[in-house]
C-alpha cells in the first residue's frame, strides 16, 4: 500500500489522504476506480469513524481510495467544503496515471453531512459561483458516481438543521439555506447514485433519501437505494470496529460493491 496525505491548495486545513494499491503493470494490472470517502459530522467536525474504516474496506475490495478531511465550523461558509471536495476530485483525475486511477471512474462516498458534501459534488459541480471560485469551465471536477450513506439532503421540513446552519449561516428554512438543498439541484447530468438509510434514523430523517430518490426518478438518473428497517444514525461500517455492530445494515457494503460492478466500476 502507498499511503500519502496531501494538503489541498486554497484551504487552511483540508487534506486528501490516499490509500493506493501498488499495481504491477507488467503483470497486466489495470488502473482502478477511485473512491473519495467523505466523513460526516454536521459540518462541525470530521468523524474518524467514517474515515479510515471505510477507506480500508474499499481498499480491501480492490479500489484506490482517498479520504477528504474538509473545512468545518466557521471555515465551512462560502461553499468552502464544496470547493475542497471538487479540488480533491480534480487531483485524483489529474494524477490518474501516476496513482493508477481510472479517470472516468471517480466516485464520491459520503456519510451524513459528508453525504451532503458527496452529493454536492454531483449536483453543484456546475454551480456558477463554484466554477468562478475554482476557475474552471468544464466537467473535470464532476464525479462519475455517488455513494450516499444516510445523507443530509433537504433544507426543508426534514432538515438536519445544524448542517445547513454550519454551511449557510442561516438557522431557518429560507432562501440562503435552500441554496444547499440538493433535492432541488438534481438534473439529467447528475451521476448514477447508490443510497442507503435506516427507517428509524432520528437524526437525519429518512425523508432526505426519499426526496432525493424522487428527484433522481424525475430526471431519469440511474440509482439504487436500500432502506434498512432498524439502525441508529451514524452506523458507518456497522461493525465492532466503529462501535456500531449491526449485521443486517452491514449488507450495505457488499451491495454497494456489487452496484459499482453493475455500473461498470468493478475493482479489478
TrEMBL record:
GO terms for molecular function: hydrolase activity. It holds the Pfam family BD-FAE. The keyword Transferase does not apply. It comes from the Bacteria. InterPro entries: AB_hydrolase_fold (IPR029058), BD-FAE-like_dom (IPR049492), GDXG_lipolytic_enzyme (IPR050300). Residues 29-213 form the BD-FAE-like domain. Keywords: Hydrolase. Gene3D superfamilies: alpha/beta hydrolase. This is Alpha/beta hydrolase. It comes from Cohnella yongneupensis.
Amino acid at each position: 500500500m502507498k499511503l500519502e496525505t496531501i494538503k489541498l491548495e486554497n484551504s487552511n486545513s483540508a487534506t486528501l489522504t490516499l490509500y493506493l494499491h501498488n499495481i504491477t503493470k507488467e503483470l497486466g494490472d489495470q488502473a482502478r476506480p477511485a473512491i473519495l470517502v467523505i466523513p460526516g459530522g454536521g459540518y462541525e467536525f470530521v468523524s474518524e469513524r467514517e474515515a479510515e474504516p471505510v477507506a480500508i474496506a474499499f481498499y480491501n475490495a480492490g479500489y484506490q481510495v482517498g479520504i477528504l478531511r474538509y473545512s468545518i465550523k466557521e471555515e465551512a461558509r462560502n461553499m468552502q467544503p464544496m470547493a475542497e471536495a471538487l479540488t480533491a476530485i480534480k487531483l485524483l483525475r489529474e494524477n490518474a496515471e501516476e496513482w493508477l486511477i481510472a479517470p472516468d471512474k471517480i466516485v464520491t462516498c459520503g456519510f451524513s453531512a459528508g453525504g451532503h458534501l458527496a452529493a454536492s459534488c454531483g449536483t453543484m459541480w456546475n454551480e456558477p459561483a463554484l466554477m468562478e471560485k475554482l476557475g474552471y469551465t468544464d466537467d473535470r471536477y464532476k464525479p462519475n458516481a455517488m455513494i450516499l450513506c444516510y445523507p443530509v439532503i433537504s433544507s426543508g421540513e426534514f432538515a438536519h438543521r445544524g448542517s445547513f446552519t454550519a454551511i449557510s449561516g442561516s438557522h431557518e428554512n429560507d432562501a440562503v439555506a435552500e441554496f444547499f438543498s440538493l433535492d432541488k439541484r438534481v438534473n439529467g447530468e447528475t451521476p448514477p447514485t447508490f443510497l442507503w438509510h435506516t427507517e428509524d434514523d432520528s437524526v437525519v430523517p429518512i425523508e432526505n433519501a426519499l426526496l432525493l430518490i424522487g428527484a433522481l426518478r424525475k430526471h431519469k438518473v440511474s440509482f439504487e437505494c436500500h432502506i434498512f428497517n432498524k439502525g441508529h444514525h451514524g452506523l458507518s461500517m456497522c461493525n465492532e470496529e466503529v462501535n456500531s455492530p449491526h449485521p443486517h445494515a452491514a449488507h450495505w457494503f457488499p451491495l454497494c460493491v456489487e452496484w459499482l460492478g453493475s455500473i461498470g466500476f468493478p475493482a479489478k
